[in-house]
């Protein structure tokens, strides 16, 4: 997890330094006692105050310092995540980047929609004024980090998330995290049983696939395409969808296929190869999402 404190920008003098760069580049001017950023030169509908007449800073000052900080660390691509209600900031951030002498395409801004908490079938009413805000740490404390991460990843960024606390606490197949982790536990159990009881180990895949096995292999082979799409579009929900779908294919396969046949080592080890491939792929996906892969449940 990469967490950055805005306070460090104030304490280190980074904000003052970034303002000096903008001033040197000709994108700041004084008017009515305040300092303004020439954001209209970059498509904004009006110039924006960056330092108020009383000397206090606006959000743009810290944003400028943060962009400069990212640039100074040598990144080729900058990514900033904002709430959807901050959509008007996108052009300003691109303007700041250009004012520092960089192409605006170097910065991608991802806008996330709201999260609503569903408990006992009703939406939790949240209010800053009333002090009834539910933080992410509050959710993690109740449902655990694995469930919290998956539920967030399992929704498109431009769609509101209804975080169903009751569903998140279920230890049943209705809970997608339980469903995925249970699939991983099953694969682990099958391979361990084959080794301990019969001395079988996963070998090459079967020469002829059943229809179910063919679907599984095709699904596994499509992972690279999914990851490439995510890399290019930031649609991280696609990995959550993919992992759930692979777990579903495995559960169906588990219920319909006898993997271990005591007197047929060739058959058993080739099917174990299929199970091992599923386990490795589920493990990779969970690792990418930061979700645990328990060996027992």
Structural notes for this entry:
With 297 residues, this protein is mostly helical. The protein has three domains: 6-112, HUPs (Rossmann fold, 3-Layer(aba) Sandwich); 115-169, no CATH class; 176-289, Orthogonal Bundle (Isoleucyl-tRNA Synthetase, Domain 1). The protein is 52% helix and 12% strand. The chain is built from twelve helices and eight strands. It has helices at residues 6-11, 14-24, 59-72, 89-99, 136-143, 145-153, 165-169, 176-198, 211-221, 223-233, 237-256, 265-289; strands at residues 28-31, 34-37, 48-51, 78-83, 107-112, 115-119, 122-123, 161-164. It has a three-stranded antiparallel sheet with strand order 1-2-3. Strands 7-6-8 form a three-stranded mixed sheet. Helix 4 (89-99) links the parallel strand 4 (78-83) and strand 5. Helix 9 packs parallel to helix 12 (265-289). The longest helix is centred in the C-terminal third of the chain and has 25 residues, at 265-289.
CATH class call of the largest domain = Mainly Alpha
**Proportion of beta-strand residues:** 5-15%
Series of secondary-structure elements, N-terminal to C-terminal: HHEEEHEHEEEHHEHHHHHH
What share of residues is helical? 40-55%
Strand runs, count = 8
Return the CATH topology of the largest domain.
Answer: Isoleucyl-tRNA Synthetase, Domain 1
Major sheet description: 3 strands, antiparallel
Provide the CATH superfamily of the largest domain: Isoleucyl-tRNA Synthetase, Domain 1
Give the count of structural domains.
Answer: 3
What is the mean pLDDT? 91
Instruction: Identify the overall geometry.
Output: elongated
CATH architecture label of the largest domain: Orthogonal Bundle
Can you count the helices? 12
Radius of gyration: 26 Å
Question: In which order are the strands of the major sheet placed?
Answer: 1-2-3
Straight-line N-to-C gap: 27 Å
Spans where pLDDT lies below 50 across 5 or more residues: none
Structural class designation: mainly alpha
């Amino acid at each position: 997890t990469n967490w950055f404190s805005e306070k460090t920008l104030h304490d280190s003098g980074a904000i003052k330094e970034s303002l000096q760069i903008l001033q040197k580049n000709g994108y700041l001017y004084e008017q009515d006692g305040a300092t303004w950023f020439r954001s209209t030169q970059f498509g904004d509908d009006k110039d924006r105050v960056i330092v108020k007449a009383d000397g206090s800073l606006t959000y743009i000052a810290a944003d400028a310092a943060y962009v400069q900080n990212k640039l100074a660390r040598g990144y080729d691509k900058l990514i900033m995540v904002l709430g959807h209600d901050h959509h008007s900031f996108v052009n300003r951030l691109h303007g700041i980047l250009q004012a520092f002498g960089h192409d605006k395409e170097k910065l991608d801004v991802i806008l996330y929609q709201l999260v609503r908490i569903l408990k006992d079938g009703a939406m939790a009413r949240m209010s800053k004024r009333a002090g009834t805000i539910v933080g992410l740490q509050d959710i993690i404390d109740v449902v655990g980090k694995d469930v919290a991460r998956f539920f967030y990843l399992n929704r498109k960024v431009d769609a509101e998330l209804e975080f169903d606390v009751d569903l998140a606490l279920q230890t049943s197949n209705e809970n997608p995290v339980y469903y995925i982790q249970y699939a991983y536990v099953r694969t682990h159990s099958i391979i361990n049983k084959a080794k301990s009881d019969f001395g079988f180990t996963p070998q090459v895949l079967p020469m002829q696939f059943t229809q179910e096995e063919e679907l599984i292999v095709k699904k596994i082979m499509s992972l690279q395409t999914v990851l490439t799409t995510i890399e290019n579009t930031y649609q991280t929900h696609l990995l959550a969808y993919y992992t759930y779908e692979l777990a579903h294919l495995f559960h169906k396969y588990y219920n319909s296929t006898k993997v271990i046949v005591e007197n047929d080592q060739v058959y058993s080890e080739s099917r174990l190869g299929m199970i091992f491939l599923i386990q490795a792929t589920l493990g990779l996906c969970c690792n990418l999402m930061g979700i645990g892969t328990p060996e027992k449940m």
